[in-house]
């Protein structure tokens, strides 16, 4: 029988905790956009500790919807093909990616085996996401409940001040054409929480971020 003194027990415990904390964090499915901002650029995937690119074959906006959601980057605006944001180097990890749009990660969409592709880096795909505005719970990316990223967090938009000029700016920003009236449907998901962002646009702005935004806090 082995007798371990309390000191040694503490030491063993400490050692195993220290070793556990040295275990590498899992990195599966990590993605990033390399380009002018956090939310637009060349799509890259981390696999086997190496960042690699994604081929633009079959890319549609539904693929971008998954990427923008995965990166918390607002609404998907555009897929840009042909190495628009420059050519990556090393591996091309993904090819023939086809998402329905509801997947939680790009790796959950249909795709070829990781690392298997018939592309060159001149076909690296790029994505542009809105960054500061998103439309949730609608039937497609152009309708639903509006949220803006303001003061460092996502907030819903107050419907009392939402009119045609706000909808004009939003629809232009997210490449969704002109607004279809009625542009506002009251949303009563939490009737006690009256907080939100009051937006005031002229309608000629290219993005909601250029409108006057004011955070309102309060509850009934
Ligand atoms: C609305 O969309 C968000 C984000 O996709 C999701 O988490 C939430 O469950 C949805 N809510 C409803 C009522 O469908
Ligand atoms: C939009 O219109 C307003 C009022 O007509 C004007 O003051 C403003 O300069 C315009 N903004 C842009 C970005 O054109």
Automatic annotation (TrEMBL):
Main localization of the protein described in the UniProt heading: membrane
A matching Pfam family: SRCR
All residue ranges annotated as the SRCR domain in the record: 31-130, 133-220
Topology class, membrane: Single-pass membrane protein
Entry annotated with the keyword Transmembrane helix: yes
Disulfide bonds, paired cysteine numbers: 55-119, 68-129, 99-109, 201-211
Entry-linked SMART domains: SR
Record flagged with keyword Repeat: yes
Localization per record: Membrane; Secreted
Record's keyword terms, sorted: Disulfide bond, Glycoprotein, Membrane, Receptor, Repeat, Secreted, Signal, Transmembrane, Transmembrane helix
Any one GO cellular component localisation term in the record: membrane
Signal peptide: 1-28
Protein role: Binds to extracellular matrix proteins. Binds to pathogen-associated molecular patterns (PAMPs) present on the cell walls of Gram-positive and Gram-negative bacteria and fungi, behaving as a pattern recognition receptor (PRR). Induces bacterial and fungal aggregation and subsequent inhibition of PAMP-induced cytokine release. Does not possess intrinsic bactericidal activity. May play a role in the innate defense and homeostasis of certain epithelial surfaces.
Record protein name field: Soluble scavenger receptor cysteine-rich domain-containing protein SSC5D
Species this protein is from: Pleuronectes platessa (European plaice)
